[in-house]
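lol so apparently i was supposed to do this last week
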Amino acid sequence: MIETVRLRLRRGTAADIPDLVAALNDWDVAQWLARPPFPYSADDARAFLRWSQPDGELAPPRAYVVTCRATDRALGVASLEPEGDRAELGYWLTPAAQGHGFMGEAAAALLRAGSDRLPDVRTVYATTDPENRRSQAVLLRCGFRKVAEEARKQPTRRGGSVVFRFERELHAQRPGQP
Ligand SMILES: CC(C)(COP(=O)(O)OP(=O)(O)OC[C@H]1O[C@@H](n2cnc3c(N)ncnc32)[C@H](O)[C@@H]1OP(=O)(O)O)[C@@H](O)C(=O)NCCC(=O)NCCS
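anyway here it is w/ coenzyme A bound
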């Protein structure tokens, strides 16, 4: 579990399924995402919960449910998925939770936690739709920089054929390191 001033990032549970289903069936969220199916069912949410915690309670989850600390109600999801020396950052918030700076707060905390527990990962990357200015602002605020514009093999749900790729180093450089 990871806590910030306003948020708790915790394992998803069956109690989160209605909130996940409602949010991911909202076009304001779904249009920007590539992975979750649309429309999104309770079975999809159950499959996500299994995928997000491959090692059960034994290891930190691949994806955290982002909740309001006061209510513990699910507001969205944030994931940091390692593969070799790279990890992909992904996230979304339900429309009512957008516009309050929550994802900058959640992503910064997730990256700090990742820096402690993922020693083999050097680079974190994220991709966004070119028109997703909010997501790009979150990434810039978290220290990412845009490194490429890439053609997509398949058009996005919004019909886009290009993604912007952002990257940053996961671990802060220590003084004296090259
Ligand atoms: C992208 C998302 C996670 C952003 O999280 P958020 O907590 O709502 O972010 P905020 O509303 O605080 O806005 C982030 C930044 O974008 C800026 N912003 C807001 N609307 C904007 C707009 N229309 N154009 C440009 N910048 C905008 C804010 O000013 C803020 O900038 P700052 O950090 O410099 O203050 C959230 O909007 C979301 O879930 N969207 C739908 C799903 C999605 O796009 N997921 C990411 C896929 S790559």
